[in-house]
Design a protein that fits this description.
Blueprint (H helix, E strand, L loop, with lengths): L1 H24 L13 E2 L9 H4 L5 E4 L8 H11 L5 E4 L7 E4 L14 E4 L3 E5 L3 E3 L3 E4 L12 E5 L9 E5 L20 E12 L2 E5 L7 E10 L2 E6 L9 E7 L9 E6 L7 E7 L15 E6 L4 E8 L3 E5 L9 E2 L2 E8 L10 E5 L12 E2 L1 E9 L7 E5 L4 E3 L3 E13 L2 E8 L9 E4 L15 E4 L8 E5 L2 E4 L3
Parallel strand pairs: 1-2, 2-3, 3-5, 4-6, 5-8, 6-9, 7-10, 8-11, 9-11, 10-12, 11-13, 12-14, 13-15, 14-16, 15-17, 16-18, 17-19, 18-20, 19-22, 20-23, 21-24, 22-25, 23-26, 30-31
Antiparallel strand pairs: 25-28, 26-27, 28-29, 31-32, 32-33
């Protein structure tokens, strides 16, 4: 040990000498660095208040040293003592790894909350009602969950006090969440939740509701567990540009209804999307006849959003696009990438349609909600459902049972004097939807059955042997 200490001393001396030399040669390179001030407690140095201690930049407040009957009350005291520029409220030392309860929200009684980053301890925190997160508030847990379970952070709804339909965590205040959104302030920014589990205790409630917060507001690495209502609800124009909503796991548990869903993106527009989503209903009793499965894991009823890397088990639809009907309903310009439906006859329920495209319309204009939808990479496998489809398109009455589908694109409506259609393209070979193929046929023509309306391009053909159209009688060369 003496040798090790001796070596360390030599190394530190060398480093100190080197830094001193740099300072003497080029003093401009050595300057004060901006960052967090020292940790502030409820008992800072004599004659100095916590606000003075952290007045120049965000400080770190140790919530365990502040007064309060429980975790949330201590965080509340630290928030009151924080400077106007904001602070990190470190509550990790309060009951870490244990089960504890809060009597009220950390923001109870604070009329003008300062920006904050709140670090929660591991273990379970039971809350009696909604946490309404103010402007520029970020919540960090210690992980979704772990083994032992105390190694992660769980926020649990108190089953005896939570009102049905209310959210556990809400981004900004609103008057009537969420069916008639009415935010009580201008759009908010910078609200986020990450690295924790929300346990709904099988209640018909909402996990996270965002209808009031925009840019730099997001959810990341959150487990939505036993929430029988809606896991994630993003709605209203004030939530536009929010997200991404990423790395989310959702399991409603065994207590669910057909209305139970993991995510609802509704009438918002221009979201940063859902990236990385796993939704599982752990019940093999889920059936379509009679209908007992939750209708959809994700409702996509917004414009210009992306859903990618999503996996579904036990929901009738993995993603249901454009089913919401109202005077403002629309689902345009969305992109779905890498969606997978699966199931196990011994553990989870089936997925009947990985993606369903609704034919519902806007109640004012009468126009279909869905247009310009791009779907890339849809698969399903190991599924106990009697029939499983990668795509069920109600707009064009098309069902694609392909277990692997590279692309399905549906564009704008095409109206004629005798009906309507859609610009559309698919790589499916199941002969239930027109597609466009290509290959070197020479002087030959395509063989086999085809769906009327399909096209085939002969890349080595001559005049009148280049483009083929599928008619009722088979492939016919077009005279070009």
């Amino acid at each position: 040990m003496r040798n090790v200490r001796g070596v360390s001393a030599v190394c530190l001396s060398s480093i100190s000498i080197g830094l001193l030399a740099v300072a003497l040669i080029s003093p401009a390179l050595v300057r004060a660095q901006a960052g967090y001030n020292a940790v502030c407690t409820s008992s800072p140095p004599a004659g100095v208040t916590c606000s003075q201690y952290t007045s120049s930049s965000s400080g770190v407040l140790d919530a365990s040293t502040f007064t309060g009957a429980d975790l949330c009350a201590k965080i509340n005291s630290a928030l009151v003592a924080s400077p106007a520029v904001g602070a990190v409220i470190d509550a990790r030392g309060i009951g870490s790894g244990t089960n504890q309860s809060c009597a009220s929200s950390p923001w109870n009684g604070i009329t003008n909350p300062h920006p904050s980053v709140i670090l929660l301890p591991s273990g379970q925190i039971t809350i009696p009602a909604t946490w309404v997160l103010p402007n520029y508030t970020r919540i960090y847990g210690q992980g979704q969950r772990g083994s032992p379970a105390s190694s992660g952070t769980v926020i649990a709804a108190n089953s005896s006090s939570f009102a049905a339909g209310t959210p556990m965590i809400q981004f900004g205040a609103s008057t009537v969440p969420p069916s008639a959104p009415s935010c009580t302030s201008a759009p908010l920014f910078g609200i986020s939740v990450q690295d924790l589990m929300l346990d709904g205790n099988t209640l018909d409630i909402i996990g996270i509701l965002n209808e009031c917060s925009q840019e730099t507001s997001y959810v990341d690495r959150v487990n939505l567990y036993e929430i029988a209502g809606t896991g994630l609800y993003v709605t209203g124009l004030q939530a536009q540009n929010s997200g991404p909503y990423s790395n989310i796991a959702c399991n409603p548990g065994g207590t669910y209804t057909t209305a139970t869903t993991c995510a609802n993106l509704n009438t918002t527009g221009d979201l940063r999307g859902i990236h990385g989503f796993t939704a599982t209903v752990a019940s093999d009793a889920c059936t379509m006849s009679p209908t007992t499965c939750p209708t959809a894991a994700i409702y996509l009823d917004t414009n210009n959003a992306t859903i990618e890397d999503a996996h579904f088990e036990g929901f009738a639809d993995g993603i249901l696009v454009g089913s919401y009907s109202s005077t403002s309903s629309s689902a345009k310009g969305n992109v779905i990438v890498n969606a997978n439906g699966a199931g196990s006859a011994s553990a989870t329920g089936p997925t009947y349609d990985v993606i369903e495209i609704s034919a519902n319309t806007n109640t004012t204009s009468g126009n279909p909600n869905v247009s310009d939808l791009s779907i890339i990479g849809v698969t399903w496998a190991s599924n106990p459902a009697a029939t499983t489809n990668s795509i069920k398109d109600d707009l064009t009455v098309t069902t694609l049972p392909d277990s692997h589908l590279a692309m399905y694109v549906i564009g704008d409506v095409v109206s004629t004097t005798s009906g309507t259609g859609y610009s559309r393209f698919t790589t499916s070979t199941s002969d239930v939807a027109p597609n466009w193929g290509a290959g070197a046929l020479g002087t030959g023509k395509p063989n086999g059955s085809c769906i009327p309306g399909a096209l085939f391009s002969n890349t080595t053909g001559a005049a009148k042997n280049i483009l083929f159209l599928c008619s009722a009688s088979g492939w016919v060369a077009l005279p070009y």
